[in-house]
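Case study B.
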Amino acid sequence: MSEKEVKNLDAIFEARIARDEKIEPKDWMPEKYRQTHIRQISQHAHSEIVGMLPEGNWITRAPSLRRKAALLAKVQDEAGHGLYLYSACETLGISREELYEQLHSGKAKYSSIFNYPTVTWADIGAIGWLVDGAAIINQVPLCNTSFGPYARAMVRVCKEESFHQRQGYEIMLTLCKGTPEQKAMAQDALNRWWWPSLMMFGPTDAESTHTEQSMKWKLKRKTNDELRQQFIDQTVPQADILGITVPDPDLKFNEETGHYDFGEIDWDEFWQVVKGHGPCNKQRLEARVSAWERGAWVRDAAMAYADKQQTKKVAKAS
Amino acid sequence: MKNEDLYQYILGIADNSLILGQRLGELCGHGPTLETDIALTNIALDLFGQTRSYYQYAAKLAGGVKTEDDVAMLREEREYRNVLLVEQPNTDFAFVIVRQYLFDEFHLLLMQELQNSKDEMLAAIAKKGIKEVSYHRRFSGDWVKRLGDGTAESNERMQQAVDDLWRYTDELFHLTKADREMIGQGIGVDVSQLRDTYYNTVTELLQEATLTVPEQEYFQKGGKEGIHSEHMGYLLTELQYMQRSYPNMNW
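Model:
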């Protein structure tokens, strides 16, 4: 293909996106579009899978059978999200094994929030309320993103996430209406999860490297700072209802802007975790690698069995 | 308690689902593939669902202010009535699958009989459970075949699991005092009558999976009488952690 023809294809492609048409796996797409989508969708899939670990940590210790079943179902939903996001990613010409390899080698990233430990039951509430709440704000715009399989996966993911978010908030509400010990547990969880949740929206716009291109492809519709502000504006009144305090002395409603002003995020901590040195980065990755390695004989056996069955079928037919 | 035997009988069934569900819950997020992870979590969810129905019923029988969680989480180890098989640890995926299969095959036979119980509540729970348990048995049975007849390594691991877990199968068919009482009243299932069907079916499937059926003379028992293996205390420590640390609270 000549350079001129590629340029022409490029122009047609960008025009389709501008018209809000969906790009499907078999359509022509610029290599950079493909790579960017593999990166983002797989990062999202990895986040779902790694995200199972901090919450899975409380399945055996959930305080009631009802909570235990709800938590199991939630973690299972995350596995399901991982599954369809990996599938969406595979339509771009990369295998699940390759994607896992990228996760296990540390080449691919996942959401840093899951590198924090879940130390009390209230953390399960806080994750649902804050982490899923932040995820929804990040993800709702993606239901209209340009790549068809991703957009469709996100519609389902967002529905389930908003259910999880309500469930998490309900755990917090129960704790806050409970004994002083329970309320203290809820406050402590908010103290620990608040700032990392704000960090989920990524670096400030000035520092963010991918924003412009992502906006064009509708992988992003608002900037990190806009989304972060939206999260804060939405979440602070919810904390008020719970009767617990957001751990930010500078947090104040600004009558002029109609938004909350908030304190400085600890960007050193942000980068430390992103670079792999958060409290649980090592454990999370080890857990994933170990599950994968310990499962190798199972996957090999399943393949061998399927081959044998196939051979039997062929032998029978001939 | 007026219905002590019925209460104990219910625990004898429900505790199996609770403890096996708890074991499967430990695995969530650590399975060999996402698909098996999701399937095993499904099974755990079914088991907890059944458990809750039984315990709600048991709590009602116990009267007073007892809840399903009191029944599930606030008993002493000696008061749990589950068989030894279901409390065995997740040694590897072969143990998980074999433990599941050896239980599912029994569980299905039990549910099929329990749906005819004179106790309407138990019959209803069983009827609802049959569909779920049939799926569990299909899943675990398929995996026994797949791993038994997969590679040399998988066959070896499966054989090890079968050899180790076989000793816990006989207990499934033991009758407790509560069992006998309930059989007499047309409420309980005479599990001792299920033994032959069980071993015939299991033997057939293990053979199809190219696994050897162990020839064991000696079996382990005790769970039904509340005498558990040393694993049980640790399992209960996690299960009861919140209820014991923060008594009398709503969650």
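The CA atoms of residues 272 and 278 of chain A lie 6 Å apart. The remaining cases will be described in the next quarterly update.
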